[in-house]
């Protein structure tokens, strides 16, 4: 297990370098000159322009720029944004907010998705099952921004149960509404995945054996059926954590959450390479780690799986 | 301020908008004197975007930082709601020849840390802003001052402009390299604010937590979240705060800010999102405003394009395109009857504005005249059937696509040529092609005034070799008129000459004016006395609680 974990950690290094190189190049290759855009169409004296260009290494060819970036990275210097702030500080502000949001969304989709999925699976074909199936289909079909705006308007403006947007601190309580919106679509997937998996495992021999042994219904469902049904669900949840963190642009925009999605979006528009690369780099690490945890959970859920 | 990414769209007619503004609340002076009732202790919340740079006067060139700077700093003059300069720190600004200015400061003004505002506070700040080694974005604002060339050149040997001289603590003189009558008008712009000595030791740290001399002082800046302003008790001047402070909340989209206004979670919003333009009036009722401000939207057809070179053929073709655009129809359909059709090259809120300059009929839609002009041009050199006329726009600005496509369609329908809207992925991609003179067609353009002066439009955009002269326009007669207007000692006389210079522009059409910008804003039930200024920015200091 230890060797396996270690090996996976070592794999992180080439993945990280490959991803940053690719992203660095992509930003480099996007059309437009970030420095001339800084002036917003107003004139800029040549001296100011060349000073700014030199400050961000934009006067260097691609390989030199990337080399300098890697060199600074070793000393944990992630570079500067065009606003003159340390990218490190930008990340330190945005990631905790997004992490809170993603974890809460993940918790919502996992808990409710599995709970309703199990009930639907056990009552296949009954009224509850059909209702849940139709409702989840609707949730999947409606775009996130529609869900977001509707919930924001109803809960925030009409009912006034919560403020329509998140305040600066973006605490756990305030993030509940955005987390619900963010987790809703995945919730529907988790539900359907759990349901299908439960239906399949319900027929398995070991379940019949467990029931024949006279085990209680609760124990059969929770230990025998559910545990074995969770592998595809956990795989989905693991991959989803990464998407929730990097892909929350729409939700963050609607609820004005100062998180990673918007940081990334604005940095891409401005051509602010250090910020884009740093954000993507962290997201890559999150993806890899989430997958590692998923792999380790496999062994926990299914005793037949072992990592040597 | 920088030229807008998004087109501010609007809904009401201009006439109604003006009436609304007129009853929108007291002027700052009235409020400061207690002329209008209201809770003077309430902390106002207002929307903003994250300032793009540290808060240094000469490095703030966009609206997010600009509105904060206007509140925490005060210069020699400030602008009232109509854009008229009012003395702040200045006691007098005197000149006999529009080239040499003697500026006297009213004594007794201080920064929020207690240090006095002196002649050196201005001279040092301006020198700092102009010097190449400080790489300040607004550096070019000082270009009129004698000695600017020397300090702004690469590897400059000196950092002090020759034209600035301190006479005593409360007096300094400014010598310009040529007479410029609108120089005093510029002095209320952010770039000309004074700085305390502490600023120069560590400008970066200072920009994060500036010690300033305006109606407010910055007490907290949580990046990407908010900027908190407290009333600066030591401020004495016409813009004294009528409220208990301002909390600028950073919004990533105006949509979310709009929801906050509706829920009473935000007090003042200076831009209604496009999605709410159709119904903001019914949502907010008399808590909304629609008023023109000093900005316009244009289409630039660069003079280096084939068929559009400066000269007879190019001028005929540009006029034909201009006359084939039914501006009012686009204003009605795309902007719900909002923006105000352009009648000239500047903006209606400026002093000296004239809607009836000879030649301005070229901005009126007339399909027959357009076709005739186009045919005349074809007689000089024919326009091939396979040729395309494109209008570039950046897709990252809300509303650009809609209006550019509408314009392209009208040109296509009227002239029967292949006119298309050409999307650019981002503002920076469009600007790149524009500044490198690599355009293959026309492009959307526009200007928001930095200071309330016609010259700020005409000189910066159409003067030969001017920094924002995207179309490479050059006309000696026009340049001479500009010079003449600048040399005038009487502003009214200057405006008259500037308007004469526009007659030349109407013939050459270095850009095709479309419409004037207007601001659509709204406020919550918790505040009153909300008024928007000449530049479309709310007059925050005059707002009170209910």
From TrEMBL, chain A:
Q: Where in the cell is it found?
A: Cell membrane
Topology of this chain in the membrane: Multi-pass membrane protein
Spans through the membrane: 12-30, 101-120, 132-155, 175-193, 229-255, 275-301
Record key words, sorted: Cell membrane, Membrane, Transmembrane, Transmembrane helix, Transport
Pfam families to which the protein is assigned, alphabetical: BPD_transp_1, BPD_transp_1_N
Q: Where is the ABC transmembrane type-1 domain?
A: 95-298
Protein name in UniProt: ABC transporter permease
Record lineage: Bacteria, Bacillati, Actinomycetota, Actinomycetes, Micrococcales
């Amino acid at each position: 297990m230890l060797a396996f974990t270690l090996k996976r950690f070592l794999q992180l290094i080439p993945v990280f370098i490959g991803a940053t190189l690719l992203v660095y190049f992509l930003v480099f290759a996007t059309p437009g000159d970030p420095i001339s855009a800084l002036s917003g169409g107003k004139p800029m004296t040549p001296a100011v322009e060349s000073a700014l260009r030199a400050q961000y290494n934009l006067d260097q060819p691609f390989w030199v720029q990337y080399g300098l970036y890697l060199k600074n990275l070793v000393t944990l210097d992630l570079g500067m944004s065009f606003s003159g702030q340390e990218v490190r500080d930008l990340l330190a502000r945005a990631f905790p907010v997004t992490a809170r949001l993603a974890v809460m969304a993940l918790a919502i989709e996992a808990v409710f998705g599995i709970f309703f999925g199990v009930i639907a699976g056990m009552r296949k074909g009954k009224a509850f099952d059909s209702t849940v199936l139709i409702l989840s289909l609707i949730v999947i079909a409606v775009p996130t921004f529609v869900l977001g705006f509707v919930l924001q308007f109803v809960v925030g403006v009409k009912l006034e149960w919560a403020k329509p947007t998140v305040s600066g601190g973006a605490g756990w309580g305030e993030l509940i509404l955005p987390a619900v919106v963010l987790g809703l679509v995945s919730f529907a997937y988790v539900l359907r995945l759990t349901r299908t998996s439960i239906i399949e495992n319900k027929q398995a021999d070991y379940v019949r054996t467990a029931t024949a042994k006279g085990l209680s219904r609760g124990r059969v469902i929770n230990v025998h059926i559910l545990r074995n049904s969770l592998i595809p669900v956990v795989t989905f949840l693991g991959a989803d954590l990464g998407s929730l963190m990097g892909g929350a642009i729409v939700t963050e925009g609607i609820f004005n959450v100062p998180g990673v999605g918007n940081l990334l979006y604005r940095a891409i528009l401005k051509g602010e390479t250090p910020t884009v690369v740093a954000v993507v780099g962290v997201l890559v690490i999150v993806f890899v780690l989430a997958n590692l945890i998923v792999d380790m959970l496999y062994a926990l859920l299914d005793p037949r799986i072992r990592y040597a | 301020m920088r030229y807008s990414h998004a087109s501010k769209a609007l809904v009401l007619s201009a006439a109604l908008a003006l009436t609304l503004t007129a009853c929108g609340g007291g002027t700052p002076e009235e409020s400061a004197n207690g002329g209008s009732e209201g809770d003077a202790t309430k902390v106002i919340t207002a929307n903003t975007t994250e300032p793009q740079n540290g808060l240094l006067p000469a490095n703030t060139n966009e609206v997010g930082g600009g509105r904060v700077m206007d509140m925490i700093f005060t210069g020699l003059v400030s602008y009232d709601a109509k854009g008229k300069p009012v003395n702040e720190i200045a006691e007098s600004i005197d000149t006999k020849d529009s080239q040499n200015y003697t500026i006297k400061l009213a004594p007794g003004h201080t920064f929020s840390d207690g240090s006095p505002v002196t002649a050196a506070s201005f001279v040092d700040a301006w020198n700092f802003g102009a010097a190449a080694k400080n790489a300040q974005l607004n550096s070019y604002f000082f270009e009129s001052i004698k000695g600017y060339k020397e300090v702004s050149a690469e590897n400059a040997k000196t950092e002090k402009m020759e034209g600035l001289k301190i006479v005593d603590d409360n007096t300094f003189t400014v010598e310009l390299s040529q007479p410029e009558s609108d120089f005093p008008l510029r002095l209320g712009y952010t770039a000309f604010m004074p700085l305390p000595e502490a600023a120069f030791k560590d400008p970066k740290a200072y920009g994060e937590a500036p010690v300033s001399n305006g109606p407010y002082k910055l007490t907290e800046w949580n990046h990407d979240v908010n900027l908190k302003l407290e009333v600066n008790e030591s401020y004495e001047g016409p813009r004294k705060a009528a409220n208990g402070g301002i909390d600028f909340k950073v919004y990533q989209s105006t949509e979310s800010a709009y929801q906050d206004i509706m829920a009473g979670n935000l007090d003042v919003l200076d831009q209604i999102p496009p999605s709410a333009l159709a119904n903001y009036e019914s949502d907010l009722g008399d808590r909304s405003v629609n008023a023109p401000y000093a900005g316009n939207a244009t289409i630039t057809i660069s003079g280096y394009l084939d068929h559009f070179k400066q000269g007879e053929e190019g001028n005929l073709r540009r006029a034909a395109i201009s006359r084939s655009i039914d501006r009012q129809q686009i204003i009605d359909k795309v902007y719900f009857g909002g923006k105000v059709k352009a009648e000239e090259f500047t903006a209606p809120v400026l002093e000296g504005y004239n809607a009836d300059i000879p030649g301005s009929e070229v901005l009126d839609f007339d399909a027959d005249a357009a076709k005739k002009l186009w045919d005349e041009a074809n007689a000089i050199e024919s326009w091939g059937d396979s040729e395309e006329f494109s209008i570039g726009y950046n897709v990252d600005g809300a509303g650009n696509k809609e209006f550019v496509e509408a314009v392209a369609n009208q040109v296509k329908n009227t002239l029967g040529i292949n006119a298309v809207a050409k999307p650019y992925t981002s503002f920076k991609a469009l600007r790149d092609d524009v500044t490198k003179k690599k355009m293959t067609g026309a492009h959307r353009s526009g200007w928001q005034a930095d200071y309330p002066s016609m010259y700020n439009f005409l000189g910066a955009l159409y003067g030969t070799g001017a920094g924002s002269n995207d179309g490479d326009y050059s006309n000696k007669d026009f340049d001479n008129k500009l010079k003449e207007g600048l040399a005038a000692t009487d502003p009214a006389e200057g405006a008259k000459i500037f308007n004469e210079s526009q007659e030349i522009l109407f013939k050459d059409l270095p850009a095709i004016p479309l419409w004037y910008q207007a601001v659509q804003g709204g406020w919550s039930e918790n505040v009153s006395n909300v008024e928007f200024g000449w530049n479309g920015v709310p007059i925050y200091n005059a707002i009170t609680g209910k």
